Structures are given as C-alpha cells and as structure tokens.
Amino acid sequence: MNIGIDKISFFTPHLCLDMAELAEARNVDPNKYLIGIGQSKMAVIPPTQDVVSMAANAADKILTPEDKEQIDMVLFATESGIDNSKSGAVYLQRLLGLKHQVRVVELKQACYTATAAIHFAHGHIAMNPDSKVLVIGADNARYGLATKGEPTQGGGAVAMLISRDPQILAIQDDATYWADDVMDFWRPLGFDEALVDGKYSTNVYLEFFKHVFKEYQDNTGFDISKFDAMLFHLPYTKEGFKALKIAIEDADPTVAARLTHEFENVRRYSNQIGNLYTGSLYLGLLSLLENSTDLKAGMRLGLYSYGSGAQGEFYSGLLRPGFDQNIEHEAFQKVLDARKQLSVAEYEDVYNSRIKISDKTRKLDISTDPAKFVFAGVEDYQRQYVVK
C-alpha cells in the first residue's frame, strides 16, 4: 500500500523584513546575511498570529468536507507550544470544524517532530486504510533583538494531509535515524526566546547527516545518483547547502550539478521566510514542487530531518503519478511578493508587542491582520481565536 503526502500547504503572515536593511541597522555587512547565511527576507509574526492560528490558516487551504470526515488523527508538531498541558491540535479540531471522533496530540523534539508525525501517521494508516491524518509543523523562531541568532528568525506553518494512495509523495520504508543528548539549542520553561550555540549546532547538524546518510546508503545500496533532489531542514539556507556538498562530494559531476540546481528550488521559499523549525523541511518540499520544472513521477527525493538536542533522520519518498496536477507553479511566490515590508523600527515594535506569559487578560487589535484565523488575545489566561 502506498502511503504518504496527499496534500500540502503553507501559511506565513503578511509581514516581512528585508535582511539587508536589518544588517545595516545592526552594523553588519549585508553579505553576511544575504550570502553568508543565504537569507534575503525574514517573516515577521504579528501578535495576532501564533502556532495555532497559523496552522489553521495553512490547513484550511487544503481540506475538503470529505477530508474532514475521514481525518481521525491530528498530529501537531511544534517547539513554540502555547500551553504545557493542552495541545495545539485540540484547538484545531474546533477551528477547522473536524469531527469529535479524532485523536489530537502535540509532539516535541525541536525541529524534527513533523517528520516523526509523518511516520506515526504512516503506521496509523497502514492499520486503518480509510483514515486520513492531518500533520502540522508550526513555529515562531525567536532569538531576541540584536542577538547572533536574530537573522535566522522566521515563522509559519506547514499542513500536510497523510493518506493511502497519496497524490504527491509516497513515503518509503527506508528511514535511518540517530539521536544523542547534546546542548546545541534549547529553550527552558518560561523562556520566550531560544538559546543556541550556533557554530556547535551547525557542526552537530552536519555530523548527524553524515551518520544517517551513510547508514542509509549501507542499508539500501543506493548511492547519491539514485536521488533526483535532496531536501534538508533549513534553519538558514546555507546550512542545507553545506550538507548537500557533503552528499555530492564524490558524485559524478552531472549528478552533482543536477542536485545543486534542484537545491536552489528547494531553498527558494525559505530564503524569503527564514527558520520554520518543524515546518522547514516540508516548506522545502513545497518550494521544490512549485519551482522545479524537471520533476517527473517516480523520481526519488531524499529528505534530511534534524532537530537540535538532537535527533537526525534520513528517508526518501517517490513522486506519485499526477503529482504535478495538484501543484500550481510559483503559487506561493505570489503570496510572498504581496507581503508588507516593515522598517527595522516597525519590526522591533511588532517583536516587542507579543502577548507575554504574565498577561492574564489582554485584547489584541485584529483589524489589520488579513488572515482568516487570528489570535485575538487572552481572557483569564484563556487564549481567544477568531474566524473572520
């Protein structure tokens, strides 16, 4: 039975920041951001959007009434959780109008858990072939103003519908994975911003890739020529390119050129959004599907998932017949181009206006947020969502 990604969509808010302008405000050479980390713009998350509202906006684009009737599990992957007890998934059950006969769970292991969710969904559907599972990867990457991590911020949500006979990508049973307890990135309870050892984290990311990709090759007998595109978790796009260079180090020049060309399609959207944590790898998939003109059914995609702390995994998927009929080329680029670009001062105001843990009751002005689902504030610590 083929099981995999039947539908995929993405949401990021209507605001962005130009990285060259940020560099100038921070007295940094703009090329350090534009070339050094490979980012041109950064998504800015207004206080009226959080992981739940962003997830709802992403999922709403792809779900039909028939899908909602068949969904019996929602797996919500995030490291930007809004409650230590209540899952983001249960909010979605109501906001999206899903039936009550559904399992709702939130998953956490840094940026890795959307991948874990896909595999959990795969196993569920193998036992329940008529089911569908909604998988969410939603996050708001925050490191603080004028910090080393600031240029790798971003945010948004990826929504994927997992089913049998998928229209887009059939997940293969070939995953290899590697875990180790390391302190490259963490966010203690009560902290609104992440802590990170950036250089160490990059080294761990690359070492984990070497482990899982070598084991994958040993297990399957596949070399790099078996892949038509390679996708990576992209905390910033240059990091994925470093992993790609490891993968193609001894490749035939024609193979290396093809994979390098497709990587430009993989990273195109991330270059304009920034870090998505759990959704990053799968934004790369959407970007590849919408921007590549060379993909064909049956092609094998390699996917490297990484979550700090740390967990790495490599697996593959095969493009399904007719996958291109469900993809509109450069569709999301139009959304990105329509965003409002903020000045650095405006971005800093937005950054500092987020609701705090200590806010017991606070109402937000939702009039300037054009999204369908918005976060309207808190009443007695209870989060309020509005469907426009």
The level 1 CATH classification of the largest domain is: Alpha Beta
Based on the structure, what is the oligomeric state of the protein chains? single chain
Number of helices: 12
What structural class do helix, strand and pairing data support? Answer: alpha+beta
Number of extended strands:
18
Q: Supply Rg.
A: 20 Å
Percent of residues in helices comes to 25-40%
Q: What spatial form do the alpha-carbon principal axes imply?
A: globular
Order of helices and strands: EEHHEHHEHEHEEEEEEHEHHHEEHEHEEE
Mean pLDDT: 97
Question: CATH homologous superfamily of the largest domain - what is it?
Answer: Thiolase/Chalcone synthase
* Content of β-strand: 25-35%
Task: Give the CA-CA distance, first to last residue.
Answer: 40 Å
Per the CATH scheme, the topology name of the largest domain is: Peroxisomal Thiolase, Chain A, domain 1
Biggest sheet details: 10 strands, mixed
* Integer tally of domains: 2
Please specify the SSE layout and strand pairing:
Elements: E1 3-11, E2 15-18, H1 19-25, H2 30-36, E3 41-44, H3 51-60, H4 65-70, E4 71-77, H5 88-95, E5 103-107, H6 113-127, E6 132-141, E7 154-164, E8 169-171, E9 176-179, E10 185-186, E11 195-196, H7 198-220, E12 229-232, H8 237-247, H9 253-271, H10 280-291, E13 300-307, E14 311-319, H11 331-337, E15 340-342, H12 344-352, E16 362-363, E17 373-379, E18 382-387
Parallel strand pairs: 2-15, 4-5, 4-6, 12-13
Antiparallel strand pairs: 1-7, 1-8, 2-3, 6-7, 8-14, 9-14, 10-11, 13-14, 16-17, 17-18
Helix pairs in contact: 1-2, 3-5, 7-8, 8-9, 9-10
Protein name: Hydroxymethylglutaryl-CoA synthase
GO biological process, one term: acetyl-CoA metabolic process
GO molecular function, one term: hydroxymethylglutaryl-CoA synthase activity
